[in-house]
Amino acid sequence: MSRAIDRDRERFRQIVRGRVRENLREYITHGEMLGRKGREIVSIPVPSIDIPHFRHGKRGSGGVGQGQGEIGQPIGRGPDEEDGRGTAGDQPGPHIREAEVTLDELAEMLGQELELPRIEPKGKDKISSAKDRYNSIRQSGPDSLRHLKRTYKRALLRQLASDTYDPKNPIVIPTRDDERFRSWTTVSEPQTNAAVIYMMDVSGSMTDDQKQIVRTEAFWIDTWLKKQYDGVQTRYVIHDAVAREVDEDTFYRTRESGGTRISSAYQAAVRIIEREFPPEEWNLYCFHFSDGDNWGEDSDQCLDLLQQKLLPQCNLFCYGQVHSPYGSGDFIRDLRRIDGKWENLILSEIANRDAIYESIRDFLGTGR
Fold it and tell me: Fewer beta carbons under 10 A from the terminal one: N or C of the chain?
């Protein structure tokens, strides 16, 4: 029987998770509220609910817009706060409680809120892994695998058969012959693996705000795909006029000032697939983010690479065009020329942070 405190703790955890789910859209669109804790836990601050109240200033400090001011006089600071010197406060501040949520739970919430279908992976019979399953009982084994219920039943049956069981003193003492142990068999199970290639335009027209949008969206995409597959391998490509494969940290921190040739990123993705991920054995996902500013004569080569090399091999090829005040935004119009021919080509325009939510739904809502 569980203790009352354990039941209360679990009820509290469910309430907190309910709050997280209710505000999931806000957490998705404001990526700074997410903090990865190791590889398994995400820490999400959940603000407590306080009743709004007025906060009064000190008596005699003046009203709003009243009195004569002097040139250069600071506004909005009290007399005790001149030159940054203030006194310790005696009022409570906002309370933040951190809810620890596993990545699996976040993925489940994401799938329910966005109504995402389960992915039907391809190539699932191509890769197998050996796993031990505890599916049998034997008469010998280590104490750590002793099956207590089976052992007790064997001892009880023995005592009943030998007429040594006393209902008035129901003590059952197993002997060595009564002991039973859990045992296992090694089985070969199909293993579904996925490879994800992220590509991002890092030319001068992509600002830090656009890259933060990419980072937030990539986090949620990763969370969902890792829920769907046994193993996910991730590769990162950045490009301006040329492309190069980099690690995750470099992917999010690099900013160049050159021009843009998107075909260089697609060529890099093709090389990665040919080198590491045979399409018949891997579920392949490509996500490309750019502001759509591409060198004019390069778009035709991009379309050729997509139709001949990438789209025939990928479960999904997703292009997210992040709005930038400096980019032309023309490339998504070039992609729409072939959009109707390929069901696995998904296009999404991401105007700002608030558009991340629907962009994720666009990308993952196909169930591929």
Answer: N
> pLDDT, tens digit, for every residue of 85-143?
555 655 655 544 555 667 677 777 777 777 666 666 665 544 445 567 777 888 888 88
> Is residue 270 one of the residues assigned to a domain?
yes
Rg (CA), the chain: 30
Domain end marker among 143, 167, 188 = 188
Q: How far apart are CA 330 and CA 332, in angstroms?
A: 6
Q: Could you tell me the two tokens for 32?
A: 């700074």
Residue 349, phi then psi, degrees to nearest 5: -100, 125
What residues contact residue 141 under an 8 Å CB cut-off, 6+ apart?
181, 182, 183
Using CA atoms, how far apart are residues 117 and 366, in angstroms rounded to an integer? 7
The identity of residue 37, as a single letter, is: K
CA distance 229 to 226: 5
Task: Judge whether 202 and 242 are in contact, CB under 8 Å.
Answer: no
Angle of CA points 28, 29, 35, to nearest 5°: 55
Would you say 235 and 198 are in contact if contact means Cβ atoms under 8 Å apart? Answer: yes
Which residues have C-beta within 8 Å of that of residue 214, sequence separation ≥ 6? 200, 252, 289, 320, 322
pTM: 0.63
| Residue 31 and residue 175 in one domain | no
Distance CA(103)–CA(36), nearest Å, equals 9
DSSP 26: H
Q: What number of H helices and E strands is found in the chain?
A: 10, 11
Same domain, 158 and 248: no
